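User: two proteins, same treatment. go.

Assistant:
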Amino acid sequence: MINSLTVLGGGTAGLISALLIKKSHPTVDVTVVESASVGIIGVGEGSTEHWNTLMQFLNIPIEELLIETGATFKTGIRFSNWHGDGTDYWHSLLPEFVCLDRQSGVNLGLIFAIANNLDPTKTVPDEIRNSYHADDFSVNQFHFDTHKLNTYFHQLGEKLGIQFIEDTINNVVLDDQGFVKKIVGKKSEYESDFFIDSSGFAKVINSKLDCNWIDCQKYLPMNSAIAFPTPYKEEIPSHTEARALSSGWMWRIPTQQRFGNGYVYCDDFINDEDAFAEVSAQFDHEIEIGKKIKFSAGYVDKFWSKNCCSVGLAGMFVEPLEATSIGFTIQQIFCLIASLPYWNKNNNLQQTVYNKKMQEVAENIINFVQIHYFTERRDSEFWRWTENNLTWTDWNKEYITQYKSVLPGTIEFNEHFLMFKGSNFQQVMHGLRLFNHQEIKKVWDKHYAHHEKYFKQLYATKIQNPIPHRQMLENLMQLKPNTVAETLENVFRKN
């Protein structure tokens, strides 16, 4: 039985872990040990739709999140110039795309678009993505100022009764069975029944346990990133941009006050100086690099080992292409909190099942991120290398070719904790021009054509009285009402 739990690391992953565990198990003493000398990685941060579940669980109102974290709404990711021909595609599961058949779970909206080979940059125009209207307000993803999010989560944790201690851990003590007995810091020692290792790349605790790193760089070769902020000169977009460059891609994440930017690249093809020069050329003003990050894609073979669970960068890291880090942390902890009440040193059933599920989730993430590199771009050494030398994952080898004429469906992705399902694969593969549209259209015409009138009308619909993103944010923060419903009602009435 667990009476006490210590989280090592006060970054986003550690704080999410502490909040969800304390909220679900209020009788457990939860302590976060964090070091002031360890900085926060990232300039701006984006979420996936899993964030909505976290907000509901922690009772976080949208307007409070916007005010406290400098957040903006995220309607998806624009992938710019990934084919090298100046075109874009979107990964954005807005209502226009999520039209599920109630019985089969088939995403009729995406099948319609794929069967008719609709231009993915035109299906949902920018005026819808960057504005809001009274008939539909379904955004459940956000961008954050990482530092403000950290401060806000500390405040929520203190209200829940989480204890926060500032210390630097320099030793891990195991008992005679190999379980973590305590972690030792410069100021004190911390004993607990259970530990969360969210110490980032340092892997302070799990490096002392029976955990091995599964390197995935042959599947995802990105290994370096430079991050930097830039000011606004235009309306706040409500999407993340991922712009392909010569040896990787550049992110742009809008918060309320600025953009967070970065260039993720493989240094086998470009050095740091040339990477800085290339990304600088994307702007009409000087930029100043805030962070340089070196990494290797992979994950631990045992996310839960003995009485420790590795979360965040300590358990897995891939490039930030699909904002997987926060989403995976949320999925990890929701899976963990159901097992914690039954755990003891003599029963590893929960641990075994948990590790099997989380390995499936990790592989799902790697499979999904990798397919983004199956592009038509061939204008640099790196992009030619991805065509000829990139090692495909076993799953992608088996399924992607078949999926060109048989859409990724619901059967293959029926595990609850998987981050990316059939609809995610369908939309990205559509943007990557991987489908045989003629074969998909045969299926549409035979089985789903009776829905066609609805979708033609849907895509032809023009929104009424759109509210720009910046104006929506300003109105929400001026009103500061008690409920989300009241917030939206007042904003739309005002306009």
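Protein 2:
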Amino acid sequence: MVGSPSSGGLSRGSVPFGIAAGPDGEVWFADAGTAAAIGRVTAAGRITEFSAGLNAGSQPVAITEGLNGDPWFADDGTTPAIGRLVVGGSKARNSTAPAI
């Protein structure tokens, strides 16, 4: 994904679903709220949400760690889908935005 994260916290109207470990050492969650997104929580507790790459009308409702370590999520939105986060492998850093 090439895009900007939200302002550094949960978006207004957030409805977080699920939580999963990522290969970058961070924790990831699905957010089916007003501003649908996939979120990341750092070890320091900073929350960042990403929405670029999601389908229009997206509703991410579940997230889990895949066999390769990448987080995968279910999207129950207008166009139902399954998505995978590509966070750059085990050497990913917080400064690198994930691809959805």
